[in-house]
Amino acid sequence: MTAFSEIPYETALIVGAGPGISASFARALASRGIKVAVSARDPDRLQTLASEVGALALPADASDPVAVRDLFVQTEARIGVPEIVLYNASGRVRGSIVDLDPEAVRRAVNASIQGAPFDAGQEARARAAGWSFLLVFRNLRDHGFGGEEQ
Asked: pTM of the full predicted structure?
């Protein structure tokens, strides 16, 4: 097993970047000289993390498959093929079930559940082209890890 300090990759994309696990991951990768792109819905919060670690900020909504596809295209054009992808996007809608906005629920479900298959589809295309690619864990907050809600 390769130690994290000896990670053999040069580029990374973090989808659903926030102040918790994904920010820590971005810091660790950047400190090892890995080019990092970070993506989230909130451009202001995203820019804070990007500035801190010297990452490329690419705002995108992970619940939108076209936005996710474009995110990979932008990442490749700006820093190269993302060899590491951390998918940590999620959505939540709070309130009484009778008061929930169906469209808000759809977006939350798409970000939390459907987003990873879009990233995995990118992985399949990358592997077919002969690229090395590592897809890392997703939705750690849903399992009790990480920082603030996105």
From this structure: 0.72
What is the rounded radius of gyration, in angstroms, for the C-alpha atoms of the chain?
Answer: 15
Superfamily of domain 8-143, CATH level 4: NAD(P)-binding Rossmann-like Domain (3.40.50.720)
Could you please report the per-residue DSSP string of 2-32? --GGG----EEEEET--SSHHHHHHHHHHHT
Give the pairing of strands 134-138 and 11-15.
Answer: unpaired
83-87, 97-101, 131-135: least confidently modelled range:
131-135
Q: What is the pLDDT of residue 7?
A: 75
CA 99/CA 133 separation, integer angstroms: 42
